[in-house]
Amino acid sequence: MIICTVQNVKKMYGGNEILKNISFEIYENDRVGIVGQNGSGKTTLFKLVSSLDHADSGAIFIKKNATIGYLAQLAEFNADSTVYEVISATFEEIKEIELKIEEVNRQLIDPGQGHRLEKNVNKLYKLQEQFESLGGYAIESKINGVLIGLGISHLTNHLFKHISGGEQTKVGLACLLLQEPELLLLDEPTNHLDIETMNWLENYLQKYKGAVLVISHDRYFLDKVTTKTIDIEEGECKTYPHSYSGFVKEKENNLLLEFEKYQEQQKKVRKIKESIKQLRDWGARSGNEKFFRRARSMEKALARIQNMKRPQLERKKAAFEFNVNKRSGQDVVVLDQVSKTIKGRTILDNIDLQVRYGEKIALIGKNGSGKTTLINSLQKDDYDGGNVKLGSSVSIGYLSQKGLETDPNLTVLDIFREKVEMEEGEARHQLAKFLFYGPSVYKKAGDLSGGEKTRLRLAQLVYEGFNFLILDEPTNHLDIESREALETALEEFEGTILAVTHDRYFMNKLFDRTIWLEQGKIDRYIGNYDYALEKRPIL
Fold first, then answer.
1. Fewer C-beta neighbours within 10 Å, C or N terminus of the chain?
2. Is 317 contained in some domain?
3. At 533, is the secondary structure helix, strand, or coil?
4. Domain count, the chain
């Protein structure tokens, strides 16, 4: 049964047509990935489907009485509520029945209510029936399962206002999943999630009783969860009956076929134009009107030919081509018995680690396991015990999780030239390679998206010439095309890379050594993420 139909939807913002002609259908139990470049209108589409915004034209039909869940739709929470109270509010109706059951039970043991015994027993029976039909007896189990799965069970007694933004997002996601809407809309759900939590969410969504639409740039996640893909490009969309990898293959094949058709049509157009020119030439020489009539007839035929738009086989991608000013020595960095304690908790417990020239190392672990603490110890001597020794000629280029940390009033051009000495004209030319075109170089840092901040910091790193790149979640906020461009550049990088990442596709493609940080200790694997996962003991 169809749960959602989108017909010829159009939407404009600020004079720009974001969605031009969007049509698709979502069936019950569909698992659909929504893909497209940053700014292609994916989140706008979610707002239209969830009625947070309205289309300029076209129509969206939702199955009668169907519930829609979208993270942005969650109610405002009481600032003084605990995390558990926020999540329990999802079951408000059940909680009210539970309170009524407690009240009736009090009346049953009240001697003064003896005359109402039969009435109260009947009332209790009906309330218990209602409570059971709504799944009341399974509430605690459901809540605990989602809390453990999302890795936030330790936060239940914390005030919601005191937990981090990432943790608040997880709480919101927990509420959404527990509501179990018939149509679930998830916009970048893997942001702020570590690998174990992502694995849990993938399994949860595979078994979910309802339709799921997910916007994501996580290719591994899309392949695990989705069975259909809607590709939004230049305001229009096309549906593919595949997960992400299947969609990529079919789209590439379709583009090649379209390009062949385009080339054939262009050959035909050129031949007609040559014939018209020849006929006019013969007519002019002979003075015979029939040649001109035939030329005019062929011009009409040419006008009737549907001129195909040239298929774009490759879209412009950011040009991440990292330079190395000077090669480092063979030993890049050596950690000897490095330890770090924060608020009485041991984060790093006598860590030994050697990083050699040319290695590409992925550092992974749960959120809060100390990954960022470990990379800070390499750069800032931020540790309590042990020793960190940098090798000869090592120069470190660092990308933080935020991508860029700077004065919010500085422009893109100012920020770039802070690190890269270059004339304004040349700087603008170079920034265009990172998709900052024309007036966008005067955009202020405070107005940049997460993806733009990451691209700008990477643009600086490209020209600074460091030989040891330390990257903290480098693919966060980047769309798939930018991720692919970054992967290619890092593959060709003639230096050493240490990256903290939860992007499993990125890890499998690029890294030949994996370090797993857990409970202050590290496990080392000579291989990518899949290899490390296979070799890790099952707990």
1. C
2. no
3. helix
4. 4
Asked if 84 and 46 sit in the same domain, the reply is: no
Residue 125: CB atoms within 10 A of its CB come to 11
* End-to-end Cα, the chain, rounded Å: 41
495 neighbors 394 (Cβ within 8 angstroms): no
Spatial distance between the Cα atoms of 92 and 74, rounded to a whole number of angstroms:
14
- Are 454 and 403 a contacting pair, CB within 8 Å? yes
Q: Spell out the residues 6+ positions from residue 462 whose beta carbon is closer than 8 angstroms to its own.
A: 319, 320, 321, 322, 323, 489
CA count, 13 A, side-chain hemisphere, 66: 22
The token duo for 382 is 């931020």
Domain that holds residue 116: 76-162
The verdict on 187 and 39 lying in the same domain is: yes
The label of the residue with tokens 């639409």 reads: 213
CA distance 330 to 70: 51
Contact predicate 501/474, CB 8 Å: yes
Whether the CB-CB separation of 44 and 13 falls below 8 Å is answered with yes
How do beta strands 468-472 and 496-500 pair?
parallel
Whether residue 381 is found in the same domain as residue 518? yes
Query: Parallel, antiparallel, or unpaired: how do β-strands 2-13 and 16-27 relate?
Result: antiparallel
* Of 467, 296, 437, 387, the residue nearest 455 (C-alpha): 437
- Say what the pTM is: 0.78
Say what angle helices 139-149 and 195-206 make with each other, to 10 degrees. Answer: 140
Rounded to whole angstroms, the Cα distance separating 60 from 56 reads 11
Question: DSSP assignment, residue 518?
Answer: E
- Cα 319 from Cα 526, distance rounded (Å): 30
Print pLDDT tens along the chain (539 aa). Answer: 899 999 999 998 777 788 998 999 999 999 999 998 877 889 899 999 998 899 999 999 999 989 999 976 555 666 688 888 888 887 777 777 777 777 777 777 766 665 566 776 777 777 777 767 666 677 788 888 999 998 888 888 988 888 877 788 888 899 899 888 999 999 888 877 888 889 999 999 999 999 999 999 999 999 999 999 999 988 899 999 999 999 999 998 888 887 778 778 888 888 888 888 888 888 888 878 888 888 888 888 787 776 667 666 566 666 788 888 899 999 999 999 999 998 888 889 999 999 999 999 999 988 888 898 899 888 877 888 999 999 999 999 999 887 787 888 899 999 999 888 889 899 998 898 888 888 889 988 888 877 888 889 998 998 899 999 999 989 888 888 889 889 999 999 999 999 999 999 999 999 999 999 998 999 999 999 999 989 887 65
C-alpha R_g of the chain: 30
Q: Does residue 369 belong to any structural domain of this protein?
A: yes
457 conformational bin, left if phi > 0, alpha if psi -120 to 50, beta if neither: alpha
DSSP 317-333: --------SS---SEEE
Tokens of 471: 């990257």
What length does the chain have?
539
Q: Confirm if 476 and 32 have CB atoms less than 8 A apart.
A: no
Specify burial of residue 426 (Cβ count, 10 A radius: 0-12, 13-18, 19+).
Answer: exposed
